[in-house]
Known about the structure:
The complex is a heterodimer of chains A (303) and B (254). Chain A is α/β, with parallel strands linked by helices.
Amino acid sequence: xxxxxxxxxxxxxxxxxxxLAGVSLDIAEGEFFGxxxxxxxxxxxxxxCLAGLARPDAGTLAVLGRDVVGEYREARxxxxxxxxxxxxxxxxxxxxTLRIQSGYFGLRDNDTWIDEILANLDLTDKADTNMRRLxxxxxxxxxxxxxxxxxxxxxxxxxxxAGVDVxxxxxxxxxxxxxxxxxxxxxxxxxxxxxxxxxxxxxxxLQKGRVVALDSTENLLRExxxxxxxxxxxxxxxxxxxxxxxxxxxxxxxxxLRLPDFSAVERVLASLREAGIAIEDMRLSPPxxxxxxxxxxxxxxxQ
Amino acid sequence: MNGLIGFRTLLxxxxxxxxxVSFQTVAAPVVTALLYLLIFSHVLDEHVxxxxxxxxxxxxxxxxxxxxxxxxxxxNSSSSLIQSKVTGSLVFVLLxxxxxxxxxxxxxxxxxVRGVAVGIGVLLVTVWFAPPGxxxxxxxxxxxLLGGAIMxxxxxxxxxxxxxxxxxxxxxxxxxxxxxxxxxVFYSIHSLPAFWQQVSQFNPVFYMIDGFRYGFFGVSxxxxxxxxxxxxxxFLAVSAFSxxxxxxxxxxxx
Lengths: 303, 254
């Protein structure tokens, strides 16, 4: 597999604010890649640099080997971007919008593909409706359609589900998954971490313009989250000495323990039996990205 | 060839944009110009004669036509840009593989077309009052197109620079409107005091209107070749500045 997106030592400043402070990142062809980080971490700036909407101050970016500045025509043809803001041109209908967007990318007579996108995004019966008359969710779908008119091998979705209802969100993910299955590289930024966890094979976490974590979703979960065990002990008993190291918190009489793996459950139970403490209630929850995210961010702040 | 399709689509989109609201973008300025003509010709036709054998109303018509061409060309590119900047839809033009030169040409040509469309409209409704001659049709066409292109390019600059509608309105009210109104639309500069004659000679819009008027009457305040050189020079200067902004991505790609 080749490299879909290559970013080297990317820097971008706005006045005195450093939005990106030397980001290097490679995304392989066919990946479903997540770009996470708090507001102001530089996600959108990074995407803007990739899409040619902002000029980098230093460093290089390439889409499938094409430099986004030097070979901008080729690079932009390989890239489809769904912008974060819900923007539209109020003068046109959905079909006109998509035909115009096709033309911008040098494509004429693109109606067969336009019809297919419309059908996939459940927009067929809105094709001749003016953009102004569409609901927010519908406009969001048109934005996705606009990014796809030129069949780009690399697709960037910048927070595509912000303010979108559950049904559309699921429909959208089904469609994007299919595109990914057909070989498109997907780059996603989102604040919904459960979405990123479910969809992305690999994740980069940004903080203050730097990459603070970059690994497969699985590894990030293992390293920064782990299984959480919640215990309620009979008679409000204290944890035995040997288990105190695993405890991460106590609330309403429940102990929260963080386990590196499943086998640790056995050790916990053995220790409790030895100490003669009975268990009143117990819950085991799988690792989750939100916890991993919070820990990565905390680690980043203390560094 | 793909690049040309991109350029042609952007041009087409820009034309469609004003044509879809042509009542507001073409019909309204035609009515405004007609009102100017009715009022000024009513008040002045009997009292003022600018050139020998040319009635004031006939003199006024080309001036009004050109003023409409210029103001509407400026309005087209500047309002299209500020609207798509404010709503954010400019991103759809910035993401595709369209070069800054194609971008510039599409906006400027569309602006000139709107200007000329309004100009033809104004001519059609006013020509009945006092038919001006059409002595040199080629000069008419050249000055209309060049004037529209200059204002279209100026509109690109204003549209890029302005962040808000009121900044654009300031540009329009404090620069474009005085330049066009004080350029000899309503009078020959020979009727001005010497000082204001001097001042008018630094106004490029004066040459646009004077050269345009020459096409109708074969008479003008200055030689049409002088006017053509000034207007062509202004076009090159404004275009170069506008292209430099676009190339840098000033305010658009940041």
